[in-house]
Design a protein that fits this description.
Layout (H helix, E strand, L loop, with lengths): L3 E6 L2 E5 L4 E7 L2 E5 L7 H10 L7 E5 L5 H4 L2 H8 L3 E3 L4 H4 L9 H6 L6 H10 L12 E2 L19 E4 L8 E5 L4 E5 L25 H12 L5 E4 L5 E2 L2 H12 L1
Parallel strand pairs: 4-5, 5-6, 6-7, 10-11
Antiparallel strand pairs: 1-2, 2-3, 3-4, 8-9, 9-10, 11-12
Helix pairs in contact: 7-8
Length: 254
């Protein structure tokens, strides 16, 4: 089965990998890649770049929402093979180097194995390389400062604006595309997951968050973003006010 690619705006594509999404932002011959899926998604990742008329050589940078293995899977491959810069929030840089790992443990997954969907998801995650060691050798923080708050638009295709949304991990970042009215939310705000029984805007189940209280608090950040398309790390595109989506996720998190 080929890559499931959905165009959501001019030069903006959401790709549904195997349980994890990534985003391609195109501008001329160059693209920005936001996240890279599981290590086992590499074939789908390369296929998705080709499908939008791009290539690994044309990736100006890889932006990572957070350094969990299902989002970091091919970042080091692109860096090592093509010299692609891998950029993250400064607090997430040591996480990407694997100086530590804030990711749900196998033991925690097993203790939650009675919950619907958890064991099938776990089997898939293992088969896709979810427990693989995939450090990025030379990740870099994106530059800080600018007229739009802590971060300004990055000088990359799509002009994404990093938005710090900690909780799922310490340095988790969403990416706002103000001109397009789009937010790439990573795992700070999703619209579905194989281990969740609900659909629509929500937080991931508690076991996936490093600090759940901070994850809930970061929903307030999304409430301030002017956008009407949400591209999550898991689940389908959500259309409608991102502010309302964050409010709905907060209600479900209580």
């Amino acid at each position: 089965m080929g890559a499931d690619i959905q165009q959501v705006g001019d030069g903006i594509h959401l790709v549904h990998g195997s349980n994890t999404n990534w985003v391609i932002l195109g501008e001329g011959d160059a693209v920005t890649l936001i996240d890279t899926g599981y290590p086992g998604d590499r074939g789908l990742l390369l296929e998705s770049l080709a499908a939008v008329g791009s290539s690994p050589e044309a990736v100006a940078a890889v932006l990572i929402t957070h350094a969990h293995t299902d989002h970091l899977g091919s970042a080091e491959y692109l860096r090592a093979a093509h010299g692609t810069p891998v950029l993250l929030h400064e607090a997430e840089v040591p996480h990407a180097r694997r100086e530590f790992l804030h990711q749900v443990s196998v033991g925690t997954v097993l203790r939650n194995g009675w919950r619907p969907g958890v064991l099938p998801w776990a089997v898939h995650a293992i088969r896709s390389g979810g427990t693989a060691h995939v450090p990025v050798t030379d990740p870099a923080p994106f530059p800080s400062g600018g007229p739009h708050g802590p971060y300004g638009p990055l000088d990359l295709p799509g002009r994404p604006v990093p938005v710090h949304t900690p909780g799922h991990t310490l340095g988790h970042c969403a990416y706002h595309l103000p001109e397009a009215g789009v937010v790439v939310s990573g795992d700070a705000l999703v619209s579905g997951h194989p281990t969740s029984r609900v659909r629509g805007p929500q937080l991931l189940p508690d076991m996936f968050h490093h600090e759940r209280e901070r994850s809930v608090a970061s929903l307030a950040v999304f409430e301030e973003l002017d956008a009407d398309v949400l591209l999550p790390g898991h689940g389908p595109v959500h259309r409608g006010s991102v502010r309302d989506a964050a409010l709905r996720a907060r209600e479900r998190a209580v």
